[in-house]
Amino acid sequence: MIDKIKQLVEDSFDEIVEIRRYIHKNPELSFYEHKTSAYIKTILIGWGISFTEDIADTGIVVLLEGNNPSSKTLALRADFDALPITEENEIDYCSVNKGVMHACGHDVHTASLLGVVKILNNLKQEWEGIVKFIFQPAEEMLPGGAQQMIKDGVLENPKVEKMLGQHVFPDLEVGKVGFRPGKYMASTDELHICVKGIGGHAALPHKYNSPLLAAAKLITELDESFKKDKDHPSVLAIGFVEGLGSTNVIPDKVKLKGTLRAMDEDFRATAHKRMQKIALEVAKYYGLEIDFDIRKGYPSLVNDVVLTESAIVLAKEYLGTENVIDLPIRMTAEDFAYYSHEVPSTFYRLGTANKSKGITHGLHTSRFNIDEQSLKIGMGLMAYLAIKN
Q: pTM of the prediction?
């Protein structure tokens, strides 16, 4: 089976590269991926493969049946939105949409999944069950395309029993992949805070109640509180401070924005209460008001241990033991997490770097790119995992 898959990968590689480059050249932002969706459908139509469309607006689902369709239903997911970044790569397929770029590799995910569709369609008589291919919009922006697709019933009819997703990883050289059973990626919450005081002339302190002091105190109190907590991996960071005062002007309010990342949903709920309690105490101490708005984002991502350990064994069969890496936890977030809370799931990493070619730039940067040889593993390994799990 491995030899058959690898041969089909070689046969379709040039076409998949072309697909990836087209998507890369024509990126679209979250919830606006209409042309990308249309392009994916054009490819599927050209291959004679039926699909369901308009799930979460631009989402697409393909169902392939092997032998004994009732034996299992496994889903594979790829996202296809881009980021608001101006690309600085000097390549023939550089983004033509100014200020929009596939800087997170979703073009790779989509091209790879299309490759898997083609491979499994060619091997229909040699695998069992149903494979559901989920082409998902809007991973990069709340509320996220995964949540929307789940609400639209993407995990039903037939009911998904297991699910796999992969993501490019420039920290790994091409040829390697990485897995982590159990807790892998953090939840993400946005913090929008407004500290309301009384402004005035800086030289007349008896006439104002500075929100700047309270804001500074709030930042340090939050920081110290979470740094002291060694039992729960988390990140609390304030990245935006706006006072709009001047050398002799104390503003009426200070706006803060930040993020909370947590690996555990119970701790996440406790952390929300902790932050609000700290804000209330600071407000009381300074005799002013603090509005503390927590906007819940994606949940933590949990890889099913049994499914992930099975995938690790299979990946070692397909790539060799030396090319399968154990991953540490990450405080970044991913809306695949929503699926992981619904069905046993595995989200793994695809090595895309090539230091000898200078392909080393990180995700969400203007020069991110991949060694396109990684597409061979992106489609080949996923096809093998789908057949064998």
A: 0.94
